[in-house]
Amino acid sequence: MQLQADFENNNHDNFAFLKEGLGELYKQATLAERYYFTDPQSSMAKVRLFVELTCHELGKHFKLRPPVHGELSNKIKMLQTSGCIEEWVIDEMNALRHDGNRSVHMTEVNGAYVAEMKVSRARMQKHMNSLYEIAQYAGKTILGIENLCTNLWQEPTSCELSLFVTDALKGSKDATYYLANKFYNELLEMSEQTGKSRWWEKEQYLDKQADLSYWLEKTHRQGHPQSWLLYAKCYSNKLLQESVARDAKLCFKQALTIDEEGDAAFEFGSHLLRCGEHKLGKNYIRQAAEKGNHDALSFQLNIAYKAGSDTEHWLQCAIEHRLPEAFTVDAYNKLEKHETEQTDESLKTLRSALVSGQARRAPGIAFFKSYVDATVYETDQVKQTVATMVDSYKCLPEYLAVEFRLFKQIADDAEHYDLMIDIYHEALKQSSNELEEADIKYSIVTQALAKAATKFKMRDGVKTPKPIPALLQEAADAGHPEARTFVNSAEGKAVLKKVGFTSQGKMQKNSAEKKKSKQKRKLAKKAKRK
Q1: Which residues of the chain, if any, have pLDDT below 50?
Q2: What are the φ and ψ backbone dihedral angles of 150, each rounded to 5 degrees?
Q3: With b meaning 16 or more CB within 10 Å and e meaning fewer, what string describes 89-114?
Q4: So what's the pLDDT on residue 115?
């Protein structure tokens, strides 16, 4: 009991916000976490009960008449019919209900009844994330608790190893697999530490390798369905030595025979890509994506958006399987559509996509929310809006073309000059005409000249993509009105004559200084010869 208490005290309390006011929901959510590692079936039973309790709490909050009743599917349908509950919540509840039902029912296999349900770790993670999203929604709706969109469900850290060791030695293959997977992750992390960052000694690595080998072999003998995949990953990452009888490819192929979630297909595809078998590797990753594997779906979205083909297919597939990144991409698509159509309906669709993305804590969704606030609603909180866009930019999927939009928002703020330089080339590619290109170049000129003025006394250069005179002249030649006015002014003419700015951020020496430097080098050589 003390070990269990230590476990609870040392873990991040994901559902603490439910304690006051929704205590029974808190209890079922924490029980679902407690069984997460060693008994996924029991965990899913608690997840299902959580969903059912949430239906009653929401029905009571919205004073639905008649009160929610009947089977769980009927309770969820009553919430949906009321129109009080957001549609994504209904979808998540139904998804959890489906697997939750499997956890409390028997199945017939070859004439025998089996009460065991197999759930992969990846699927359990998705379910726990969904549970957390519903909990956040209930907390906000019923208790009025505001939760940050960046908050994510955190997988519980391990409790004292002795608890798992005891269960493993008693024959629990889930506990044994947990130990093997734990040592795999620790060894993988150690193998990634090289050079000066390496903190471990060789003996420590060998001890960890021996632990991995022991527990993995044990869980394999116990018949854990994921042991083939774990062996394959160990061999693929060179953590264990392959043998003639058992190598990475053989283990991957065995794992593929029971691969319902696409985990094995994605890992095998990634392995083949590393080995140079690109066509076959991409084919396996595609198979994994079709099964709903999140890593594979992210890979396919990346390829589709870069190639400009199959984007709609993979986006819908990713949304269906609730990939958080997909809701960011959906908001991006809706934004592009609204910028083209400029109708009330397109704006309504965009707002809906932003709400869904925020609810699901989609990566970088704050970027698009802030951009819409700035460009559509013209908020007066300009500095805060720009800061949010800059902060969330790094969280966006890298294949989304947002640099031009970002550049336009930060172009007047010298604080973000370095970011302007970083995204300059991408912003140019995304501009739609010469005048937009010229505006980008002139913005760089304006901010660079301002920075140069403050650094002049230090003789410190300003980094620019091209020399400032060249950027200025190109902007003016393209017809940029402000650039043309500037080049015709006395200050502009003076800038065009200068050659003191380069893309390396250093100011070039003038001819007189070059002559003096040359003379100094000659004198130094003569002194050495003497």
Answers
A1: 1-10, 148-150, 457-459, 500-510
A2: -85, -10
A3: bebbbebbbebbbbbeeeeeeeeeee
A4: 57
Amino acid at 317: C
**DSSP element (H, E) containing 447:** helix 434-455
For residue 524, the model assigns a pLDDT of: 63
Residues sharing a CB contact under 8 Å with residue 30, sequence separation 6 or more, in sequence order: 8, 13, 15
How many Å apart are CA 116 and CA 497, to the nearest integer?
80
DSSP string, 392-403: HHTTS-TTS--H
Report the pLDDT value the prediction gives residue 512, as an integer from 0 to 100.
Answer: 53
Residue 71 dihedral angles phi and psi, to the nearest 5°: -65, 160
Single-letter residue type at 204: Q
CA gap 322, 87 in Å, rounded: 13
End-to-end CA distance of the chain: 87
Q: Looking at residue 12, what is its pLDDT?
A: 72
What is the model's pLDDT at position 380? 82
Backbone φ and ψ of 113, nearest 5°: -90, 130
Q: Cα(186)–Cα(339) distance, rounded to whole angstroms?
A: 48
Could you give the CA distance from residue 158 to residue 156 in angstroms, rounded to a whole number?
Answer: 6
Helix axes 227-236, 202-221, angle to 10 degrees: 150
pTM over 0.90: no
Dihedral sign (CA 274, 277, 278, 280): negative
Distance CA 115, CA 45 (A): 13
Residues 6+ apart with CB under 8 A from 214: none
What are the Cα distances from residue 278, in Å, to 80, 265, 272, 283? 45, 14, 7, 8
Tell me, rounded to whole angstroms, the distance of Cα 29 from its chain centroid: 24
The residue assigned the tokens 């903190």 is: 199
